[in-house]
Amino acid sequence: MDGMDVLWITAHPEPRSLNGFLAEEGLRALRAAGHEVEVSDLHAMGWNPVVDIADYAHDAAERFQVAPAAERALDSGALSADIRAEQEKIDRADTIVVQFPMWWFGMPAILKGWFDRVWHRGYAYGLRGPGGQWLGYGDGFLAGKRALVVVTTGGPAWSYGGRGIHGAVEELLFPLQHGTLFYAGARVLPPVVVHGADRFTPEEGGHAADALRERLLAMPTTEPIPYRTRRGGDYDGNLVLRPDVVPGSTGLGAHLA
Fold this sequence. Notes:
Elements: E1 5-10, H1 18-32, E2 36-41, H2 42-45, H3 66-76, H4 81-92, E3 95-101, H5 109-118, E4 146-152, H6 169-172, H7 174-182, E5 187-188, E6 192-194, H8 202-217
Parallel strand pairs: 1-2, 1-3, 3-4, 4-5, 4-6
GO molecular function, one term: NAD(P)H dehydrogenase (quinone) activity
Family: Belongs to the NAD(P)H dehydrogenase (quinone) family.
Keywords: Oxidoreductase
């Protein structure tokens, strides 16, 4: 198996947590297998999650429109150094691991802020192909790269099932996996979900680490989630599924081939 170049992004404030333990074990397994790994530990870095005019050398006398300001700053070399450093890590990687505890059904604020600042127009979206076509949902700046989400939940697995009170975990992760990673062109692998993390014993933590190691080392050959691509013929000119594609079906599951 050829070596991977992995960017591991993690967002938990306590390195002695289950998330911290899983990150340590996962990174050790990847490196022992000969893979190159860079880490963005957002809390250890003191990452600033807040979008601000200072990120883009914007003139405060003018109205601040985030998307065009970010694109201009990237093009002119005025982009904040911390943002550009993260983009350079992404550029070097062929595989991205995003690890976090699920808080209130989503990412912690520090990780959401990483995407808000790093995933800006001109770099992560608003891109055009050689023929001027819009890139997104299956192609984009992450085309050819893999992405894996590793997430812990406080509740038990059955409460995140199709009829569980918290909702299906695949749907809770849809904004990140489909709307962020797949939108940018990544091949998004089925997530690693560790349920009931608040009640884990050391033995259960060891089992979770074993399962994570297995998934990490299998990333090059794991089949991605079969999301429908924008250019695959399933969507009409308004980006709505054609009537003959899963007729009558609505909701997030309709976007799986």
